[in-house]
């Protein structure tokens, strides 16, 4: 198993499809290699950006097996868990461990608005069912469940619960978490449009979206922030921001797949009910991507290779 310390850049990777909407494993391999070449610290499979809602459980495990083959121990491979019942979640975690996953990202129950006690019990049952390290996904904006500090205190009683994907969009929460838990909890920023601020406030890394299309730029931004080169980081961030805003739209999958297609490391196809972009929207997103490419900074200007 690859070393997993919950620090650095973890792409929530795309799931490329071919024109028949089957998983395009050749393109998946190409994107994965681009991520590894840029220096990412791990990948997360079948997350929101990976179209978890459009994948069967069988496909998720097949994706895990293929990813493990491609990665071959170079970086950790983390599988997202989005099951609706505790029984299914426990079985999913156990199978992921058996197949060789290095860790899990776990969402609260998706189709039932559980209360705090139920959410904690759900996460604890998963943690107690396998030895895989767990990243708790805290995203009350999109998934209605807020995991507060007291809930997190209970969750940290489980040694395998080690990190949180912080997607509350409240930057103050990073400081609250640091003040309460210190080094007991690793924090990964989960919102692209506040990724630099998250790092500057002490986040240990990022679960990133636009990294799927721009791995080198994302790594440069991370390396500059970690090196305290904030002036250069802000300059790069300002170029990046129009693209990063694609991550916070309901059509983030169509948008980011299109950006990655421009880079030659994805296909644009999404499974229904997501439909292809058309008309004014398609033209607008294409222009945004093309404008960014036209103004693309030379990473050598940011000493990317030496940081």
UniProtKB/TrEMBL annotation:
What keywords would UniProt list here?
Lyase
The family this protein is said to belong to: Belongs to the DapA family.
Q: Any idea what this protein is called?
A: Dihydrodipicolinate synthase family protein
Which species is this record about? Sphingobacterium litopenaei
